[in-house]
Amino acid sequence: xxxxxxxxxxxxxxxxxxxxxxxxxxxxxxxxxxxxxxxxxxxxxxxxxxxxxxxxxxxxxxxxxxxxxxxxx
Length: 73
Description:
Layout: H1 6-14, H2 21-32, H3 38-46, H4 49-57, H5 63-72
């Protein structure tokens, strides 16, 4: 299982033009880990405490919710 490299995320975030940390995190995971599958992304997010709080804040409870969020932005 892959875990989020928060040090690299902070560096990635410095170069992002977005304001939303969750959207930046999703972009980071797609870019840094080369993942596009909502299932793979969700698996990474759900095991990390900080990322899980971000999911809870947006009421994302399952892969389908994340997929909906990804395709709405």
